Structures are given as structure tokens and as C-alpha cells.
Model the fold of this input.
Amino acid sequence: MANNEANHNKHIISSDDVVHVAALARLELSEDEVELFTSQLGVVLDYATVISAVDTTDVTPCSHPLPLQNVLRADEPKPGLNRQDVLAQAPLVEDGRFRVPPILGGVP
Amino acid sequence: MGARALAGRIRSGEVSALEVIDNCLAEISKRDSTIHAFVHVAYEKAREEAKEIDAKIAAGEDPGVLAGVPVALKDNLCTKAAPTTCSSKILENWVPPYDATVVTKLKAAGAVIVGKTNMDEFAMGSSTEHSAFGPTLNPRDTSRVPGGSSGGSASAVADGMVTLALGSDTGGSIRQPASFCGVVGIKPTYGSVSRYGLVAFASSLDQIGPLAGNVDDATMLLEVVSGWDPLDSTSLQRPSFILDSVSREGVKGIKVGILNELVDLVDNEVATQVRKAADLLDSEGAAVEDVSMTSIGWGIPAYYLIASAEASSNLSRYDGVRYGLRVEGANATLMNSFTRAKGFGAEVKRRIMLGTYALSAGYYDAYYAKAQKIRTLIIQDFQRVYERFDALLAPTTPSVAFLLGEKLTDPLAMYLSDICTVPSSLAGHPAMNIPFGTASGGLPVGIQIMAPALGEASMLKVAKTLEQASQGGFQ
Done:
């Protein structure tokens, strides 16, 4: 039993999971990073089992510490950020717009 | 010299703002090559601002309550005039197109911003070792970390380089470095200080707050930066705090609970100081009693799942398109992935991975949703306790400042150093660190005072009482 548990904890997150999650998070990871994160995230997720045993039946999840409500303001036009100031911080611009590589497919 | 006294001397013309700022900049250039509290020092801009203050005084105009007082800003607070890097390679050369609301308020009060302070990258860390620009050292012992993530702000104040600093606290990032460096640090009630212009880490937790050498200065800075801001839809619709005189009212009749679970898990020399503080408050007329909160131990897993989940969402904006670093790739996805791989450090990647995993299909209920329910239970536990108490006393950290490198390769050990501070963060409650005596090696010990939402007045009464006793030699 103890052996099984240890085994289970060791594989709480697999290297395949890490590769999958890295793709979702748009992070290119090296093989070394995949190995390191698999082991480190496993330790952290194992510690999270402290809360998995707590009975939370009928407990409302809390997404925010304040009672959130719609915040309204008067709809008055006012100047936004200066276009040139904003574009000056972008890595690549063209004709007053942000320039990006192709969104779909490979090399243009 | 305290901020109020210093501003008073400047306002009365006893000393010019420029002299004060020149002295401050000279101290920084002398001391910061060792400590590395700053990632950017605004040598020219600060002198210009000081001259403007002096001109206002000469013209008989009101230069503001913080006239000429040097203030340092954590480098996740946007400044139009200076780079804002979050100590990350991905924002290394970014100059924001606007000032954070706290920066606007500081300027209106006459404060002079002398620089931006080092931090754990994107405020993720408890030692400032996760800065892409190298660690900050603890001025009390340079072989030790200053804590984090506001380690630069805490050490700049502790080393006397600035009078005041602002930090941000998501799970303890003001209180823990304040404790390690022996200064006062306040995480105010969630929503009481505008976060417009604070680079987002975990939005349901992030809060800006003051670090200072004493309670009065921290209180004054909190008063200046607090208050409703229409630019932050989560800011509370209430006026700025007025706390200075109420903080001096003493603790007679105030009900203070000692949080057993936290006192029991920290080092002996830290626990001893908490007990001494409790005895002192008792002798000053507070009603002091032990109290138990069984949910305290759930704080770390709940916090790290929630904060990382929110971070993974917030940090998706660093995509190489609108600002910051870009590494080219054949298509947008590759460009995004290469940019983020090169721009983010190991701890930020770890948190993004943890958060993305906790939110991903198949694991959402077991991790993120579970953590949100645990958060509710912790808040309910606090509600139960605050029916009987005005404030709670606990350690700020499990130990005094640890050695550089000690926890760097063990993420869980680093996370566990936040065990005393995350509960109030999850609840959105105010909490602060007050230095109270030292441990055997002469390193500062910090006491944490917590209070229910908008309970800053009780919290500061307790802090002021402990500070007066400390200064009177009671330790």
C-alpha cells in the first residue's frame, strides 16, 4: 500500500503532461526543463493533497475576496493613450499597427 | 529622520529638497553596489523633481505633505518616466506610456521618486533571488536574502537609502521582506489602494502597500496612496484612510487573538518573540487570548494553486506583440513560444506551468476549483475568529532571514516560507509586519498583526504599541 502510494505520487504529473501543458501555455521547453518541471511540479502537486482530503461538499468556490458587482461609469469620451507612445514600445510595427507573423500555417 | 519631520524641514525651508535628494542619491550610489536594492536609479529626474518642489516652496505654494521625501518604487509599478521591468528579461526595456495611480498620488503629495527596486521576477518568489538582474542582499547580513518579492524596497528602507518605499503583496511579498530586513510593511485591505498601473500577477490577491522605518511613516504613506480610483474597478468606493491619530490611541480594551497554529510551527526564537509581544499587549490593557484556526494549514496549497492559475492567465499578455521582448518564429505560435521561453525565468515558467495545469481540462475540479472552495473555508474560519477578536497576532515568517541559495533549488521549501502570510491574502484582509526584537544572531524578528477587512485602525494601534515598547528597550 505504502509502495503504491509512493508510486502514485511519483507519477502525479508525467513528462507527457508537462509537454502538453507547456504547449497550452506557449512555452518552448528544453528536454532538461521538461525533466526538471516534471519532478518539481510533482512535489508541489503532491503537497496539494493536503487539501484534497478536506470535505468541501456544498462549499461555494471563492473567486474574489470582495462581493463583486458591475462597476458603471458615465459614458463620456476622453482621450486614450497616445498612439505613438504605445507603438514606440512594440517590438515590430508597420503603418501605425503591430506587425505579427502569420497566425495560421507556417512560413508565409 | 521620519518622513513627516523631513517634509516639515523641507517645507519650512530649513533644508532644500535638492539637498535631501542629493544626499539620498549619494547614499544610493555609495551603498547599492553592495546591496543591489535598485534596478534603476532616477538620478537626473529625481533632481529635477526636487528642484520643482523647491520652486513651489519659494513661490509660497503648498508642495504637499511628502514634500521632497525620497521614495523608492517596486519595479512592477508603472512609471511613465522610467523603465518598468518587473525584474524580467521580457520587459527589460519597457517604458510604460502611463503612471500608476499610486505614482500620480505620490507626485501630487510632493514625494520624489528616486528609483525602481529589485524584486523576484513578476513578484513570484520569497527571496528576490528570482530577479533576472541578480539578487538583492539583506543589509542586516549580506550572506542572507532580504526576503521577497519586494526585497529591493525592504532593503532600500532598511539600509537607510530611502525614507519610504512601495511594494506589492500577493501572498506576503511586503510583510515577509519587511520581517527579514527589520522594517515596517503593510498589506492593506484588498481594494483600499488602487492597482491601476500595478503589473498584474494574481488579480484576486495583489495589493500595493508601504514599507518604512517606523509605523508613523508607513501609515502616512498608506494614507497618501489609498482611496477610490475610477481607473481600478476593484477599488473600494471609499475615501483615503485617516489613521495617523487613531494609531496612537493604545490597545486598552482591544481583543487580540494569538494564532496557535502559526506560533507552533515556527522556529523557537520567533515563537518566543510572539509570546513576548502578547504579554506586552496584555500588560498594556489589551484582552489577549490564544485562538485556533484549523484551516491555516490549507493556506499554502490553496494559495499556490489560485495565484499560479491567475498568473498563467495574466501573463498570457507577454506574447511578443505589443511590448517587451520578441523572438521571431515562422508563425505566431512559434514566435509566442520562443519569446516566452527566452523572456521568462525558471520560477515564472514553473508558476505558469502549475497554473495552466490546475486550470486544464481534467484537473480543474481537483486543483483550481478545490482551492477556491478551500479559500471559502479559510474566509469563514476568519469570520468566526473575528467575531471574538479585533486583531490577530502571529509570526510573519517561520524563521529569520535565510541564507542566499538555501531554498533556491527547492521550490516547495521556498513556497512554505509564506505559510504565515498567505491566509490574510486569501481573505483580502489587512496584515502587517512590525519588527520586534532579534534572534540569537542579531537578525530581526517580525511580528505579524492581522485584522478583518478595513480593520487597519486596530491593526495599527497594536503595531504602534509594540513599536513603542521595542524602542523603550522591551524585547
In short: The first strand of chain A starts at residue 93 and ends at 94. Chain A touches chain B through 54 residues (CB under 8 Å). Strands of chain A lie at 93-94, 97-98.
